[in-house]
Write a structure and sequence with these properties.
The structure is a single chain. With about 100 residues, this protein is an all-alpha fold. It has one domain. It is about 70% helix and about 0% strand. It is elongated and about 45 Å long. InterPro entries: UCP019883. This is DUF2818 family protein.
């Protein structure tokens, strides 16, 4: 796999994964359906999706070549990027649709 394809794949997966907690009412995407899923569950799902996306990126990086160690700055910027990518889902869930 080419490096640019891997980058675009991780970005596409990150966009979808960051918005999934807001568009889905199931617990952890496969559990029982809960009509008013709380913000705590959404944050837990968002964290889980971020970890899975970072895992995919690390796997693709290892397959392409040598995996580089990252400092805390990389993870801080990655968390901010992941939260920013999830903003459309947040707007749709809490600001656009309203309550109920």
């Amino acid at each position: 796999m080419d490096q640019s394809v891997a980058v675009w794949l991780v970005l596409a997966v990150a966009i979808v994964a960051a918005n999934l907690p807001y568009f889905n009412e199931r617990l952890l995407l496969v559990g029982p359906r809960r009509a008013p899923k709380g913000a705590g569950w959404r944050l837990l799902e968002l964290t889980l999706m971020a970890v899975l996306t970072y895992g995919l990126g690390a796997l693709l990086e290892a397959r392409i070549g040598q995996r580089h160690s990252q400092g805390w700055e990389f993870y801080a910027a990655g968390v901010c990027l992941f939260i920013t990518l999830g903003f459309p889902g947040f707007v749709w869930r809490y600001l656009r649709r309203g309550r109920g």
